[in-house]
Amino acid sequence: MKLPIFWLLDYLDLGGASLADRAAAACARWDLKPQGDVAPTLAQLMTFAGFACEGIEGTGEEAVLELDVLANRPDGQCILGLAREAAAILRVPLKLPPAELGESDPAAETFAKVRVEDAALCPRYTARVIRGVRVGPSPAWLQKRLTAMGLIPRNNIVDITNFICFELNQPLHAFDLGKLAGREIVVRRARPGEPFAPLYGEVPPLTPETLVIADAERPVACAGVIGGAGSEVSAETRDLLLEAACFDPASTRRTCRRLKVGTDSSYRFERGVDQEAVAWASARAARLIVELAGGTVARGLLDTRPHPREAKVIHLRHRRLEQLYGVPIPFQEALAHLAALGCVCTQEERMLKADVRVPTWRRGDLEREADLIEEVARIHGYNHVPPTTSMSARIAPRSALETTTDRVRDLFAALGYFETVTDTLVDPRWPAPAVWTAERPLAMDPRSVLREDHSVLRNSLLVSLLATARLNQDRRSGEVRIFECGKVFLPLKDQARPDERATLGVLDERGFAVLADAVRRLPEALEWSGVRLEWASVADAESGTALPVSAFLAAGKACRVWLVQGDERTAIGWLGVVAPALAQKFDLRKVPAVFEIDLRAASGVPVAPRRYVPLPTQPENARDIAMVVDEGVTWGEVEAFAAAYREPLRDAAEAPRFLSVFRGKQLGPGKKSLAFSVVYRHAERSLTDEEVNAAHQRFVEALLKRFKATLRA
């Protein structure tokens, strides 16, 4: 936004002092150093107030500043808005431009009619009728201001509408009233394929998504974007219809993109204009037109706003102000800063509290008490905040659920599984069996849906894992073994919000036995004390659980997972092989084993205290074993036997070390080879080979007998 300093001075009451003196005094309050020339000094002040200066053209009071105005500050897109900021910074009164208007009979409604068919896209539309104008060149003062903004002066009528756009942030449009068919304005959506000829360039045929300003026959302007040819002001124009309106920002933005047109007006409408200032800007423009082009203003304003907005009031507390700002400041001084920005402050009697009515041009960014405090700090100065060279920080302890989730991730990653992260919104066309409850997945509010394939909340990790398995299958990624720690959403009776349940889901194409072996490691990884996991087939399990596992798992390979603590058993998950019908719906060529458990229930289990033992002082003696066992024998069973085997020379602190599993034709059908190692160590001396071999032979014999196995050659 360009800010000509000579134009800015029209709205500042400097009280006889020079702008340079006022700027130097403001620099002293903010601990800034004046830059010599008034232009860079003012640029420095505006930058520290939140309007960064990106360039300066010229010097002194004839200079033009190029300021960066944030999107949430549309009031800064005009000279008056920036003058209000400058007046607050310099602590001088703001001079508002005159807008008093003389009107004469007959009334405006006798000359024109206005009708708005879509109030959502046009919350306010006003029109004034001015008769008997003389179109001609603009005076030098007006041409100078428009040229400084980068515009080419056209004629007095068009120049005044452009002047008001930059002065008050209110785009205007002047129609030649005699060229409007029926002398009527209709604000409506365009008809499909309706043609429109803009003032310059070409645009594609219009669509119903485009809001237009039309007369009784055709569109004469694209609302908030560009005027149309045929109704513009010319040298022969005598009667005007002056439009001042407010259009929906999103609709204006879509129209600009569709038509590939951008103007100073659309730029402002896209960011929002002040609805309450529309009539004032119209009066200001009409006054200037009468002064510079003659004519008379018909009595009354054609105004279609159906519902004026209520004032926004925010409660401000002095205690909270000083707490958040970090600087002691008299409450009256803080309220004076807000008043300088246009706020109306009403202080409670004998109380350090006030109700602050937000100015209409700041409704978009002043939303809460903290916003008002930020405005006070911005104008009073951040230099008053004492520097802090140290700060205290406290890391919140991790919850039981977070700790459980971390340990689960570490376990399955160490076992060779790959973690997936999928969306909680899934495709409603996926077959989603009711896993945790009998309810179907919850559908999102249609107004919140961005994609049809992401429109329901998943009720289990099963569908996400199956979809991921299919993706890996299609990309030939090899044998799939994946897990995910995520949330599922279960409906609650008579409650709008669902139960967000943290769960662990695992999928393994290597089969039920391998997955069950991994699940057996959970209690040890979670360091449970006096608690174990058990699972039983649906046919053997007790009734009364809400987990309908038989509906989505294969018959004979569907298990419920129980948390067993003493005599108490709680169903917290399920384990099994996916039903072939469900696997077929996901186009899976290989039916995987799956597992899901409630992490919230798992995190509530008591954790055993950690015990530490000294590091061994004697060397270890490791021995490897490779034995051929039945396919149904799991590593977990072998590991449990090896850990429980009592041998004086075995190191009880060293768990058996898994090495590999092998399947091949040479082993025979239904057989596999398990390889692992065990450690022998004496606490006080080194062992001889003869002692280790004898002890190892006893262990191997017991192992082979227990599992009816043979040593692999």
Core attributes:
single chain; 7-stranded mixed β-sheet; Phenylalanyl-tRNA Synthetase, Chain B, domain 1; 24% strand; elongated; 20 helices; 713 residues; 5 domains; 6-stranded mixed β-sheet; Phenylalanyl-tRNA Synthetase, Chain B, domain 3; alpha+beta; 29% helix
So how many helices? 20
Determine and state the CATH class of the largest domain. Answer: Alpha Beta
- Outline, from the CA principal axes? elongated
CATH superfamily of the largest domain: Bira Bifunctional Protein, Domain 2
**Biggest β-sheet strands, sense, barrel:** 7 strands, mixed
Strands of the widest sheet, in order across it, are: 18-22-23-27-26-25-24
Radius of gyration computed on alpha carbons: 39 Å
Helical residues, percent: 25-40%
What separation lies between the terminal Cα atoms? 85 Å
Number of folding domains? 5
- The SS-based structural class is alpha+beta
The CATH topology of the largest domain is given as BirA Bifunctional Protein, domain 2
What percent strand? 15-25%
CATH architecture of the largest domain: 2-Layer Sandwich
- The tally of beta strands, per DSSP, is 31
Low-pLDDT segments: 540-547
Question: What is the residue-averaged pLDDT?
Answer: 90
Short note summarizing the structure:
The protein is built from 20 helices and 31 strands. It is of the alpha+beta class and 713 residues long.
